[in-house]
Each structure stands twice: as C-alpha cells, then as structure tokens.
Amino acid sequence: MNYRHAFHAGGFADVIKHIVVVRILLHLRQKPAAFRVIDTHAGAGLYDLQSEEAGRGGEWLTGIARIMQARFSEPARALVKPYLDIVTAFNLDVANLEGALNAYPGSPLIARALLRPQDRLTACELEASARKRLIAALRGDTQAKVVDLDGWVALPAFVPPNERRGLVLIDPPFEDKDEFQRLADRFTAAFEKWPTGIFLLWYPAKNRRAANDLARQVTHAAAGTRPARSCLRIEFSVAPQAPRAALTSAGLLIVNPPFRLREDLKTILPELERPLGQGGTGRFRLETP
Question: Residues with catalytic annotation?
Fold first, then answer.
C-alpha cells in the first residue's frame, strides 16, 4: 500500500497515533531531565484539510472532525484534551477566530508543541517538497532540526541521542512490499543501540500475517534484553477490512511504554469506538504481546 501523510491527514489512524504520542510525551515531561524526539518519516508537518489531497478521501471528516465534536466522560476527556488543544491551536488565527478545522498538524509539530526548553526534536524527511514545507512550518525553531536523510538510515544513526530519555517515532509510508520486514530489522538494530528509549512503530493492519510477524519480531527483540523490556500493542478498526478497500485498521507497537500509558489507553480507547466507527461502532485491541 502507499500511506502518504497528506492523503490521510487527520484520519482515524492519525487520531489514534497522535493521542498516544501526546500521552507518551506528557509522561516524559513529568521528570525534569531532557528528552529527545526522533521522527524518522516526518512528512510535511502541517496539512491543509481543504486541499485536493486531503479532500480526495476526506478521511479527516470521519477522523479528527468527529473527535472534536465527540462527547467524552470526564476521565477520558481529561486525557484527550491535551491532544485536542494542540489541534485547535493550529486552527486559530485572525481569520478563523472560532477554530474551524482547516489544518491538521503532523507528528513533528505535535511533538514540538510539547517540548520544554531543554528538549529537542530531530525530524527526518527525504522527499524534497515535504521537507521544505516542514522547515517552513517549524520557522527556524532552534529546538527542532529537520534532516535531509532517509529515515531508515537515520534510525540507527541517531540513537542513542545525547539525552538519555526520549521517543523514536517510526511511521513509514509502506510503499514497498518488504516494508514490514524492513521495519522489524531497522527497529531491532536501533533498539540494540538504545534499549532504554521509547519506540513507537505504526503499521497498517491490512495483512494479518504481516502484522503478527512484525509484533512477534519486535516483542522478541524487546524480551531479549537484560532486563527484558515491555511491549504494548494497539490495533484500532473502524470497519471490517475488505480487499483493495481503503485502510480501516491500523496498529501501534510501543516498546518501553510509560508506566501509566496502558491505563490511560484503557480509559480512552473505548470512547473512541463510537465516534470513529464507520457504518457501526469501531473496535480496538490493547494487549501486551
């Protein structure tokens, strides 16, 4: 498949991924020591929801647009609010005082919104047009560095960072048939160099065998360290997956998840099933492989 950020900005997969990213970074912020965020396939940073690309599938209409209007219980709303506040901030300007949804921030801008003065972001983007837009979106920010480098090359090269703590976000476009195996191999190489880092791997859950193989290899790598590292697997489906149909199920593998993350997600995910479901209620799985 070809999962280019611009065509899917603000869709259900972005919503799930970015809620988790925000929760992880908020947990990292609880300690004063600096942390680093490494985004291996960063994309353009900010996406115009009124563009032809975003409008082609209109995924944001059944993703972030629904979540912004959803009614949550008080515990869930408290956990989701920091993510919603970041999205809202990118939609407030002089011409849009009410914050109507016109733009959606990608992972690097969401991460940047949560950095403290001591924290840093490294965002890798090989595609020239997307990289130029990302540089413009970050506006010369001294805490964020945009790197003209293939994310697969950058992944083992940039770990461990000078900071002892941090998050590595691996969200490739899945353009090649061997992308699942490449993801497993490159994660393993990077994890061997930085076994204390938090790693978040995104994948499309169209091929059950490929998804399970990836989870098995990642879990095996995490369990092989001393001490063994924990792993959390999340999959969220908005509708049954049909052959050649648009993506309706996506997953995340999180190695070294923060202690409270699982409890956070047990509160949040059930309340996303109804607003994100298409033609019925969505469903999720949350497990420790």
Answer: 171
